[in-house]
Amino acid sequence: MMQKQQTNDTGGEDALVGNVNKLMVSPPGYSGAPRKGHLVFDACFESGNLGRVDYISEFEFDLFIRPDTCNPRFRVWFNFTVENVRETQRVIFNVVNFSKTKSLYRDGMSPVVKSTSRPKWQRLPAKNVYYYRCPDHRRNYVMSFAFCFDQEDDVYQFAYCYPYTYSRLQHYLASLERRNLPYLQREQLGLSVQQRRLDLLTITNSEREKKLVFLSARVHPGESPASFICQGVIDFLVSQHPVAQILRDHVIFKIVPMLNPDGVYLGNYRCSLMGFDLNRHWQDPSPWAHPTLHAVKQLIVQMNQDPRVSLEFYIDVHAHSTMLNGFMYGNVFEDEERVQRQAVFPRLLCQNAPDFSFSNTSFNRDVVKAGTGRRFLGGLLDDTSYCYTLEVSFYSYMTAGSTAPVPYTEETYTKLGRNVARTFLDYYKLNNLIKDNRPIHIQRRRRAWVSGIRQTDIRTDRHRLRMNKTQSTVAGGSFTLHCL
């Protein structure tokens, strides 16, 4: 049933609690039958988000993001459809209530769009997108984009970034199960508050004593690129690629592809159904308020207490709204040798993935990050373990020698995931867990190169680490690794 627009003079942005549902937006005072060009907006679908539409003129509309459920602080993700368009109808959409001021929209990012006749997502031309402070909206930052509808019978869909829904994940995991791969196990680790599955994948040829790598993604539901990366990791590890076969022989991979399924389903950006940023509750998750996080933490603690398990890596995958490329965050340790060892994996990944930035990779001890998976597990696990946050830009990446950023696509996000998986082979060859069959001179060159990292990249920042030692203990200081 179509809903007609009603004026909303009371209540601010915080009052938006639901998505628009087939909302027809017509000129003020119009009471006749809907006409072509009276746009119909909808966000009542999985991962949808649009809380309100204001008619400015027949060419211009103000759009309000619905805040995360039970938490009005976060308004970033949007995902909505428009129909009943007129061919060649030109419009300007103003997204007026972003909760963040810093944004990649300042650097050329643009929303993505698809339609029923063109189902592949594509980015709008950057020249049609404007990001600015607007005096009409309390000097908040507004993102405006111009668009011309060209097919009257199409339904158009616009989103902040490429959506990756809970249902898409379930279909993907079900298709993997149907392949009956002997080295893949899928299990339900728990249920969310709204009773959605928390899936755990185990990928290995046998679970004898091996090194263990644990990956998680989508603790922040609006960070959809994390799901494409995670799928890239999984696709590679279950493939028949020789590197994947070697890794399955020597390493156990455990992957939680979606830590916050309710938030993803509801179209939240940062929070769970109950308004919690789950990545700030690792220290003491509640089994009823944060059941998915509680289940994952329990599993990791159990594995850490099992002498047969050597949990060497924990990587939590995210997307970043202000920086380019892929990069990592790691922890600060007093033991300088451990700091040096922690730099090796991101440096190897930099060699395998042209979109990964070693210069953006940093190690910190910020107080506000104390409840994150990286920080909590970095303190829980022993000094042979490495805990990272893997970040990737919502927008684009720069490669060596490039003069302009290259926008990410679903495929290039997935490719970064494959390159993450491949890097584990390089790491374990370097540490002699896996036999390196390359010529001796190449092996020596690689070891000398890594030794150079440890002696040069880290040492150049030691004076900063010493200067900030007191500050980093109390107030959080950080230091960054720089490319040579």
From TrEMBL:
Cellular compartments annotated: Cytoplasm, Cytoskeleton, Cilium basal body; Cytoplasm, Cytoskeleton, Microtubule organizing center, Centrosome, Centriole; Cytoplasm, Cytosol; Golgi apparatus
Protein name: Cytosolic carboxypeptidase 6
Its biological purpose: Metallocarboxypeptidase that mediates protein deglutamylation of tubulin and non-tubulin target proteins. Catalyzes the removal of polyglutamate side chains present on the gamma-carboxyl group of glutamate residues within the C-terminal tail of tubulin protein. Specifically cleaves tubulin long-side-chains, while it is not able to remove the branching point glutamate. Also catalyzes the removal of polyglutamate residues from the carboxy-terminus of non-tubulin proteins such as MYLK.
EC assignment: 3.4.17.24
Subunit-level organization: Interacts with MYLK.
Reaction(s) catalysed by this chain's protein: C-terminal L-alpha-aminoacyl-L-glutamyl-L-glutamyl-[tubulin] + H2O = C-terminal L-alpha-aminoacyl-L-glutamyl-[tubulin] + L-glutamate; (L-glutamyl)(n+1)-gamma-L-glutamyl-L-glutamyl-[protein] + H2O = (L-glutamyl)(n)-gamma-L-glutamyl-L-glutamyl-[protein] + L-glutamate
Native species: Sander lucioperca
GO terms of molecular function: metallocarboxypeptidase activity; zinc ion binding
